[in-house]
Amino acid sequence: MDNTLHIIGGGMAGSEAAWQAANAGVQVVIHEMRPKVETFAHRTGNLAEMVCSNSFRSDDDEQNAVGLLHWEMRAANGLIMGMADRHRLPAGGALAVDRDPFSESVTQALMDHPNVRVEYGEITELPTTGHWIIATGPLTSDKLGAAIQRETGSERLAFFDAIAPIVYADSIDMSVAWEQSRYDKGETEAERKAYINCPMTKPQYEAFIDAVLASDKTEFHEGETAGYFDGCLPIEVMAERGRETLRHGPMKPVGLTNANDPANKPYAVVQLRRDNALGTLYNIVGFQTKMKYGPQSSVFRMIPGLENANFARLGGIHRNTFLNSPTLLDDQMRLRSRPNIRFAGQVTGVEGYVESAAMGLLAGRLAAAEILGKPLQTAPQDTAMGALIHHITGGAEAKTFQPMNVNFGLFRPLDGLRGGRKGRKDRYKGYTDRAKEAFSQWLESQS
Q1: Under CATH, to which class is 5-158+321-444 assigned?
Q2: Which of 47, 92, 157, 270 has the fewest CB atoms inside 10 Å of its own CB, making it the most exposed?
Q3: Is 168 helix (H, G, I), strand (E, B) or coil?
Q4: What sequence ranges are listed for the domain MnmG N-terminal (predicted)?
Q5: What integer pLDDT is reported at residue 279 of this predicted model?
């Protein structure tokens, strides 16, 4: 068998897998269909292009499972985290990045690596020989998706990811809006003012909800059903669940004081997060939508401060394909029926940039170890990566399997620590301390 590692898909997972395997000394070929075969969501042919949010979410590695995953990926010399840190933008306690320079840097780093080459073109069938990782993400092509379906014998599983709109900063009325991170979170002034906030009175909020509910929505194709992931719900789906849902979700007014009118507490607040280093673009936080383009412009201009907003990109919606991994993959991320093929990224049933890249990191290291004749156990279950891989390859209930973000609910309990909300701080610190020790030992075992 040829010892080259072939990776289908150059997104977050594929790029990270290639980097890890190449650094281990394995020859890697990335097969990327873009730009020869385009998708509706991508704008470039760059690797690791960010098509939804520009945020890697919380960077707190002591009290947040996502931040812990950041820590583990940095400890493993992760390419995605390295470039995210290089192109970091102010975002309070979150890790947000300047998306275009980020993807350009990932692309350049892989192009410059002596063990990596990129071949452009679509792979439409499952390979029968060789070492492969399929990391095609949420926009797996129809032909490859059909090949996966034929092999697995299961129906193709899908839910819909919605994309939030992006606004030009100079079109936001700052006499109405103000800059502030929730609870003034952040160590620097830039971090504490990383978000632009647009306040709403109760009548304005009620009118906005009415307009969202009445707007024309994107129709699904015949045979498609909308099984949304709760962490990325379109705003109209949230509004349909109850008129107060948005006000207790992305539009919650807590932790914010209107700098233009401190005496009056907003009934609801729409937040916008910086989307590029220049500060010229802001995305509307949590406003993924399936509204049609025409209604989007008029509905979002009902938001105080956005009456004259110019949109660099309106929202959209796309299908996300993922495997029923508990039944199909082993703990090495290999397809049970074809163990020469591994899967990585969102297609395995994880949700989010960070989780996708982390599964790519694992798949790359596991594949490289196998190729080099040095079998490697997967990451320990008490680590963030280990908790994720354990969940998707056996810990989750196969009959109800749905995509999952990393969270402390996936971690094994710690003895002797208080449960409930009051014990949460100590418990989370216990989880992260235990994970860091286990992950460090796992890395040392590979040196």
Answers
A1: alpha beta
A2: 157
A3: strand
A4: 5-374
A5: 84
